[in-house]
Amino acid sequence: MKTYRDFEQTKEIQFYKEKFHSIQTSLQFMLQKQGIRNFMVTSANMSEGKSFTSANIATVFAEKGNSTLLIDADFHRPSLRKYMQISENIGLIDCLTGDKTLMECTQETHHPNLRLMPTGIAPLNPNEWIDSLEMKQLIEEAKQQFDYVIIDAPPLLPITDSRILSSLCDGVLFVTFAKKTKRSDIKQAMRYLEIADANVIGSVVNGVAISKSDMKGYHYKY
C-alpha cells in the first residue's frame, strides 16, 4: 500500500476525498443511530483495500473534529504504519502485554485529531492476544478516551483473528473489491460474521472503474 502522501498527490484526490466524506457521513448517521463508538474494517481476502479504506475513513472522522484512534490489528500483514509514515513500531502488542499505556502506544499522524496505534512487533501467537481479556479491555479504554475507535482487522477467510475481533467490536464495516472478490467468498465471510454475532453496519466497494464523466470510484451501502 502506498503512503498517505502518495494518495494526496494523485490526480483524482479531490474526487476520492469527496467519496470518503460521503461514506463517512452515511456511516456516522448509522453509528449515531445505534450508539456505536467503535467498529472494525475487514474484507474477505487480502488486497481488497480494507486498510486504505480504514485509514481514509478515520482521517475524515478526524477532519470533522472527532478525536479518532485508528488501530492496526492485522499482525499478519500490518500496513498502516507505512501508510501514515510513522517511524516508531510501538503499538498494539505493547499495550496488550502491559509494557506501555494506551496513549504511549499511539502516535500523532498528519491530522491533529487522529492518532494511530500500529501493531508493534508481531507476537508468535497473535490469535491468543486478539482473543484475550486484555484486548477487550483495550477497546473499552480506547472508547473512553476517543470519540471513535476504528480497527483495521485482518481478512476474514484466511485468518481467524477477525472472526474473534468482530464479537468485541460494536460494528463491522465490510470491504470488497469490484470484479475481484468472489460472491462465494462474500457469502462465506458473512457466515463467519453471523456465527460471531457481529453487527455488520455497511460495506464499501473498492476498485470500481473510474471514468472522466462520472468518476464513480467508491460505493457505500447500508
Automatic annotation (TrEMBL):
InterPro entries: AAA_dom, Bact_polysacc_biosynth/exp, P-loop_NTPase, Wzc-like_C. It is an enzyme of class 2 (transferase). GO terms for cellular component: plasma membrane. The keyword Kinase applies. One of its GO terms (molecular function) is ATP binding. Residues 49-179 form the AAA domain. Keywords: ATP-binding, Kinase, Nucleotide-binding, Transferase, Tyrosine-protein kinase. It catalyses: L-tyrosyl-[protein] + ATP = O-phospho-L-tyrosyl-[protein] + ADP + H(+). SUPFAM superfamilies: P-loop containing nucleoside triphosphate hydrolases. It comes from the Bacteria. CDD domains: BY-kinase. Its EC number is 2.7.10.2. NCBIfam families: eps_fam. Belongs to the CpsD/CapB family. This is non-specific protein-tyrosine kinase. The lineage of its organism: Bacteria, Bacillati, Bacillota, Bacilli, Bacillales.
